[in-house]
Structures are given as C-alpha cells and as structure tokens.
Amino acid sequence: MSTHRGAAFLDQPYVDPNPLPSSVPHVDELGATSAPLKSASFFIGQHCKDVNEDFMLCKAENRDPAHCLKEGRKVTRCAAEVYVVLLHLPDLPTLPPPLPTQSPADSSLSIGKIRESCLAEFDAHWQCLEKNNQYFQACRKPERALNQCVFTKLNLSKTIPGSPEGQPQVHEKKNPIFTRVQK
Amino acid sequence: MSHGFKQDMPPAGGYESIKYKRNLPIRGPGGVVVFGAVAAVCAFGFWRVGKGNLEKRELKREQAWSRIHLVPAILAEQDRDAYRRQQAALAREREIMKDVEGWEVGKSPYNTARYTPSTIVVL
Question: Does the beta-carbon distance from A65 to B80 stay under 8 Å?
Fold first, then answer.
C-alpha cells in the first residue's frame, strides 16, 4: 500500500460552488434517485438508443469531459423526456416539443401523451424496487403493469439484449423460480 | 425297584416345536420404490437447480443491461460536474499565477494528447 489514507474526504465535503460556465447551455439534470432510474432504464435505453450510442462513441474518442458536453446534453434531455413522460413532473421545464412531422400514431413521445402517462404504474414499480433491494425479480407484478402501460401508451417495450431466442425473457416468465424471498 | 422318586416326563403329546423361524412381516414400500423415490426427488431438485441457474443468468443479464442503459445519462451528468470543477480550478489557477511570467494555465505535466484527469483536488 502506497498510502495509509483512504480515497475519501472525511474532514470536509468536496464542494465547489462555482457554476458551470455560461458558454455551456443549461440543461436540467434528471434529479432522480436510483430506483426510479432503474425502473425506467429499459425505456430510456430503448427510446434514447441513438443519442446514447452517439455519446458513448464520443466518449470512446476522448475521455475528456469537455469533449462530449453537447452529446451529453442530448442524452440528458432524452432521458428526461422519457422520464417526464413516465412521471409527468410538472416542475421540469424542458418538456419535449411535440413532433409535428410524425403522424399521431408514432409520435409517441409528445406533450399530449404526458397527460395519459403511466404515473401510477411507474410509482408502484419503483417503490416496489425501493422496498425490495432493487431486485427486478421481486417486483414482477407492478413491472408487468408498467410494461403493459408503457407499451400501449408510449409504444416502448422492454427487451433484454442477448436473451435466449425462442423462449420468454426473464421478466415475462409465467412461473419464475426466483421471486421475493418472503411470499 | 422303588426309590421314592417319580421320573419327570414330557407332557402328553410331547413338547411343541421350538419357534426358531424368522417372523418379520413385510411392511411399507420395497427397496426399489424407496430408492426410486429418492432418485426422483433428487432428479427433480437438480432439474430445478439447473432451471434456476439459467434464470439467474438471465436476471444478471437484465441487471447488467439496466445499468448499461443508464450509463450515458449518469456519465453525462458526471461530465458536466467534472467540467464545471475543472473550469473553476483553472480560473483559480489563472488568478493565483497571473503574476508569473510564461505560466501556462492548465498545462498538463504529461506529454500526451490523451485526457489525463487531475489527481489534485483543492478543497
């Protein structure tokens, strides 16, 4: 061991009050804790696939935080879009504008849809995750309701890449072996 | 001839025969059934363990992809914060070193184009 000190600041917090330079456009942070993010993760991943991959390719180019700020803002806006649609938080001002070029059938993510979003199912699922050590397998019932709602209203479906072909994915199993420890 | 004794004799008809033969009635299922049942229970258990292992693998995959999907959003947020702190540190350095001739603010000590994060934090 080269040092006897842990990599943590125990005596004072690592706080820097200086704001982001004004040259960087403002973007609202997601501001969500881990359980809601985990609950929405597959929908964020599906809806924001292009911007996410763009951002990760940019990061692969250069790890400098200054290099991918623009792509990062797109990522955050896109995730917030899904999030707002799921949550319809009234205090997030960066609501996505309705997409006029698309037909109503596939303009699934627009302000109009927010009213009929899946707030109740979403809340039920992430609170279940919160109470069950964030195990997906413990919350299949609220998850099924959420997936159903998101599929019908937002046209996003949860798919796990790399799942075995020709059999139901792990979240669609009728009789899973691993559920909650307590019934 | 008489001595005053009477000879002890077997009862009339003789003694009954000694019961030396084994008398254990067969109760319960036979050996084949018991061993078969044990084997069946074990087979079911191992089948279920195998199923469970496959399911556990899928649960891990689900967990991993849930995290993978969130990496860009979290990294983007971290990057903005890191950039903010970096710029603040550079501004401090500029202010402190403004009187030093030929000082390059934010010059990396490394001779590389690769991003090398600062290892020093000023609290």
Answer: yes
